[in-house]
Design brief:
- The protein is 68% helix and 5% strand.
- It has 421 residues and is mainly alpha-helical.
- The protein has one domain.
- Strands 1-2 form a two-stranded antiparallel sheet.
- Helix 11 packs antiparallel against helix 12.
- The chain starts with a helix and ends in a 7-residue tail after the last helix.
């Protein structure tokens, strides 16, 4: 492999990791929103208090309203000034896009490549990669602006602003305490379209641009003159990298947050008497200080989130142990000399790197199994936070997967053998 091909290794691995991490954050947000709606429905369908003692009912209502207002103010005040996970995704994407310039003979003329959008997958890759970066930057700016506006407003308005920005309305707390806000009413968009609309459509367009970006990357390498690339293994490799690094990258960020926030310490007492205490968790594509449900209520438990990410990560890692044998079998059955030469490079010339890659993937899967066992032995997935060992093993699994993906992308470029001259 030529020296300048290393820029393509960095470019493809980092940009695919960024797309995968963003999509993973969106899936987590979607699952949390569904859980919110279910919890809101259960709270609405609960038994009503029809006592004729209006004075006591009004006092209870006032007390509940004060608790909701205090909870919303604490949640918004504790949220960081910037959406940290999206900033990390944007930084990784920026480094990857910058690395791609070093593969070009004249990097300053890269912008001229977009003129062939109608006929060139490379031009489409540049367009959709730039579009994904621009939309992601706009999303980071929008969330930062929303958080700043909420922090500058009075407590009741902060609660309402935070609810509108996330497409939700203040939720009535359940006896267990509600970790997240419930969905917005149907007329929320018409009431304040400027605050709700970007939070609704901007993540969707960003995700679509990211998927189109990866599809263009795949199409570039589906060349009939390259038997090793012109197969199912190319979309499996690029899509698998996005899945593995995206899922485990988010899990590692979640684990680092748990370790640095000291979530293994006993939860502080809640002075407001609402039955909840601060804890770090993922919500709406950003790390915030939300509420820990003290008695296993309807909130999303961080341990359960980490457990789900670990299970998804194991499945994504196992995918490569299926793709590699099938790819080698397909190349071996190909009568072209170029295909045989690619098999030679994979199984003989670079067999050590191939075995190292598979070994790293196996070690990462073992670390994730350790995460599942640790969480189960600690208190189960309903625990308010995962133990420190589970967080450390998650970071180890992510590091091993990054090293494995670099080895795999090296093999991808090293095994290319062109048909003919």
């Amino acid at each position: 492999m030529e020296t300048r091909d290393w820029s393509l290794v960095i470019f493809t691995v980092l940009t695919q990791a960024a797309v995968g991490a963003f999509l993973t954050l969106q899936v987590l947000e979607h699952l949390a929103t569904r859980r919110d709606r279910g919890a809101s429905g259960r709270a609405t369908d609960g038994p009503q208090n029809n006592s004729p003692a209006r004075g006591g009912a009004q006092a209870d209502e006032h007390e509940a309203g004060s608790a909701r207002e205090s909870s919303g103010a604490r949640a918004l005040a504790a949220r960081g000034p910037l959406p940290a996970p999206l900033l990390v995704v944007l930084a990784v994407l920026s480094v990857g896009l910058f690395a791609a310039l070093f593969h070009l003979s004249t990097p300053l003329q890269a912008v001229r490549a977009v003129v062939n959008f109608s006929s060139s997958w490379l031009s489409r890759e540049i367009v959709f990669g730039s579009l994904f970066a621009a939309l992601l930057s706009a999303l980071v700016w929008h969330e930062w602006r929303t958080a700043g506006a909420a922090a500058a407003s009075p407590a009741p308005e902060r609660h309402a602003a935070g609810s509108a920005a996330s497409g939700s309305a203040p939720a009535t707390p359940t006896p267990a305490g509600q970790a997240f806000r419930s969905p917005a009413p149907a007329n929320a968009l018409s009431a304040d379209p400027t605050s709700l609309a970007p939070a609704t459509w901007l993540p969707r367009f960003t995700a679509a641009a990211g998927l189109a970006f990866i599809c263009c990357q795949i199409a570039i390498y589906l060349l009939p003159a390259q038997p090793a690339w012109n197969s199912f293994a190319t979309p499996a490799a690029f899509g698998g990298t996005a899945l593995r690094l995206g899922i485990l990258g988010v899990a590692a960020g979640f684990a680092v947050r748990n370790l640095t926030a000291g979530v293994d310490d006993p939860a502080p007492a809640d002075p407001g008497g609402s039955g909840v205490a601060p804890a770090a968790t993922l919500r709406e594509g950003k790390v915030i200080r939300s509420f820990r449900v003290s008695d296993g209520g309807s909130g999303v438990a961080p341990a359960a989130t980490l457990r789900g990410l670990a299970l998804a990560g194991i499945a994504a890692l196992a995918l490569e142990f299926v793709v590699v044998p099938l790819h080698l079998s397909s190349l071996s059955a190909n009568p072209l000399p170029a295909a045989a030469a690619s098999v030679q490079r994979l199984t003989v010339d670079y067999s050590g790197i191939l075995l190292l890659r598979l070994g790293l993937l196996g070690a990462a899967a073992a670390a994730l199994v350790g995460v599942l066992v640790t969480i189960r032995r600690a208190a189960g997935p309903s625990a308010p936070s995962p133990p420190s060992l589970a967080s450390v093993l998650t970071c180890v699994a992510f590091g091993l997967t990054v090293a494995s993906e670099v080895c795999g992308r090296f093999l991808f470029y090293a095994m290319q053998v062109r048909v003919g001259i």
